[in-house]
Design a protein that fits this description.
With 82 residues, this protein is mainly β. It has one helix at residues 3-7, and strands spanning 19-23, 26-40, 45-58, 62-70, 73-81.
């Protein structure tokens, strides 16, 4: 049996696109060796961190741009934290 069939959690594969989501009012990022930068609506950087696995950030309510950088390239997501 694989890990994903036992736990429902998919292992992170090298080259996977980072996953950005909002869960319970927290910004969550999941990825392998991922540099994360989060910008508020005014364009100010509010978070900068390297994630290897997953991380959650407590941010005030608002719109954010999440920029993630991995070996395979740059990915950008727009999110609303309620």
């Amino acid at each position: 049996m694989s890990l994903s069939s036992l736990s429902g959690v998919k292992p992170i594969q090298v080259g996977d696109v980072p996953q950005v989501s909002v869960i319970a009012g927290r910004l969550c990022v999941r990825g392998s060796s991922t540099r994360v930068a989060v910008y508020n609506a005014a364009g100010q950087q509010v978070v900068q961190r390297t994630v290897d696995g997953q991380a959650a950030f407590n941010l005030p309510a608002g719109y954010y741009v999440v920029r993630t950088v991995q070996a395979d390239g740059l990915h950008t997501a727009k999110v609303l934290v309620p």
